[in-house]
Write a structure and sequence with these properties.
Layout (H helix, E strand, L loop, with lengths): L4 H19 L1 H43 L5 H51 L15 H14 L1 H34 L1 H15 L2 H42 L5 H11 L6 H14 L3 H31 L3 H44 L5
Helix pairs in contact: 2-3, 2-5, 3-8, 7-8, 7-10, 7-11, 8-9, 9-10, 10-11
Length: 369
C-alpha cells in the first residue's frame, strides 16, 4: 500500500491545529479579540478607503481624466473627493446646529411655561373621558426632582462623562489613524492590487487563485453598487420627508429632512435615528405637530423599508426585494447595526455565487438555457 507521507503530515497538522483550537477555545477567542483591537484602525481605514473610492472613481472618470493632469491626477481626485464629503457634512451641521441652539435657548428660558403648555395640551386629550380623572400631575415636585438630580448627581454625572469622553477620544484616534491609512490605500490601490494577485498566484494553485480573484471582483462590484444605491435611497428619503413636512406645515422642514436623509444611510431603520432630534425640535413649537411628525415618520419608514429600499438598493446590487428584506431582518437579529449595514451586499455576493454555481451545474447536466 502506497502512503503519501506529505499528505499524511499535512492532514495530521490540520487535525492537530483544529484540536488545539477547540481545546484552548477561550484563550483563542481572547487572542483573536486582542489582535482585532489592534487591527481596528486598519479596518476603519479599509472601510473609509472603499467608500471614498466609489466617489473618487466617478470623479476620475467624469472630470479628472479630461483635464489631463498627469501624475497629479490621483491627488486632485482625492482632494475633490474629500472636499465633497467634508462639504456635505458641513452643510448638514450648518442646517442642524443653529436650530438646536435656538431650541436649547427656548428650553432654558421658557421651561416653566413649556411645562404649562404640556399640561394644557394633555388636558385637551380629554383625560376624563379615558377614566383618568383622578390623575394629578405635580409640576413643582417634578421641577424639584430635576433640580436635585442636577445638583446632587453632578459628581456621578461628570464621572460618567469622563469615561464617555475617554471612549470617544479612543474612537477619534482610531478614526484619524484609519483616515491616514485610507489615504495610502487610495494612492497605491493599483500597486496593492498587483501585489495581491502576485501573492495569490505565487502560493496557491492557478484555479484557486483565479477563483479568489473572481469572488473579490464580484464583492467589490456589489459593495460599490450597494454604496451608490444607499446614497441614492437616502436622497429620496430626504426629499420625501421635506415634501411631507412642507405639506403638513411642520417647522424646521429643511433641517430635519436633511438629518433624516443623512441617517437613512443606515439601512431600513436609519430614518428613525433622526426622528428623536426632529421631535425635540418640533415639540418646542407644537406638541401636536410633534405627534403628527412621529406618525408621518412611521409611515415614511414603512414606505422606505417595503418599497423604496428593496427596489432601489436591491436592484442596484442584483438582489430581489424579498431577499433584501430577509437579509436585513436576519442581519439585524444576528449582529445589530453592523449586521444591517453588511447584510445586503454580503447576501448579494452569496446570491450571485449560488446562481453561477446552479447555472454551471445545469449546463453540465444538459439542462441549462
Amino acid at each position: 500500500m502506497n502512503i503519501n507521507y506529505r499528505s499524511f503530515i499535512k492532514l495530521s497538522v490540520i487535525v492537530g491545529a483544529v484540536l488545539a483550537i477547540v481545546w484552548y477555545l477561550p484563550e483563542v477567542i481572547r487572542f483573536v479579540g486582542i489582535v482585532f483591537s489592534y487591527l481596528i484602525p486598519f479596518i476603519i481605514g479599509l472601510s473609509i478607503a472603499f467608500v471614498l473610492n466609489v466617489l473618487m472613481k466617478i470623479i476620475e472618470e467624469k472630470i479628472i481624466i479630461r483635464l489631463k493632469l498627469g501624475k497629479y491626477q490621483r491627488m486632485v481626485a482625492f482632494l475633490l473627493t474629500l472636499g465633497t464629503m467634508i462639504m456635505a457634512v458641513v452643510i448638514l451641521v450648518l442646517l442642524i446646529i443653529p436650530e438646536m441652539r435656538s431650541t436649547f435657548s427656548i428650553v432654558s428660558q421658557n421651561f416653566p411655561s413649556f411645562l404649562k403648555r404640556i399640561e394644557g395640551w394633555l388636558s385637551t386629550l380629554r383625560i376624563n373621558d379615558l377614566g383618568l380623572s383622578d390623575l394629578e400631575i405635580n409640576w413643582e415636585n417634578i421641577m424639584e426632582t430635576a433640580y436635585n438630580f442636577i445638583t446632587k448627581g453632578s459628581g456621578e454625572f461628570f464621572s460618567a462623562t469622563w469615561g464617555i469622553t475617554s471612549s470617544i477620544l479612543g474612537i477619534l484616534i482610531n478614526i484619524v489613524l484609519g483616515l491616514v491609512f485610507s489615504i495610502y490605500i487610495l494612492f497605491q490601490k493599483e500597486t496593492l492590487g498587483r501585489q495581491t494577485r502576485k501573492l495569490l498566484h505565487a502560493f496557491l494553485s492557478e484555479d484557486v487563485a483565479e477563483s479568489i480573484l473572481e469572488v473579490g471582483a464580484l464583492a467589490n462590484d456589489v459593495f460599490s453598487k450597494f454604496i451608490k444605491g444607499q446614497f441614492f435611497e437616502a436622497l429620496i428619503i430626504g426629499i420625501l420627508c421635506f415634501l411631507g413636512m412642507t405639506i403638513l406645515s411642520m417647522p424646521y422642514a429643511v433641517a430635519i429632512s436633511a438629518l433624516v436623509g443623512f441617517t437613512a444611510l443606515i439601512p431600513v431603520i436609519g430614518a428613525f435615528v433622526g426622528t428623536g432630534i426632529g421631535v425635540f425640535l418640533i415639540i418646542m413649537v407644537s406638541p401636536i405637530k410633534a405627534l403628527w411628525f412621529v406618525i408621518f415618520i412611521v409611515v415614511l419608514q414603512q414606505v422606505e423599508s417595503n418599497l423604496i429600499y428593496p427596489r432601489v438598493v436591491g436592484t442596484s446590487v442584483g438582489l430581489p426585494g424579498i431577499w433584501v428584506l430577509l437579509a436585513v431582518t436576519v442581519g439585524a437579529a444576528a449582529f445589530g447595526i453592523l449586521g444591517i449595514l453588511i447584510a445586503v451586499p454580503i447576501s448579494s455576493v452569496l446570491y450571485s455565487l449560488l446562481r453561477r454555481a446552479v447555472d454551471r451545474r445545469l449546463v453540465q447536466k444538459g439542462k441549462g438555457e
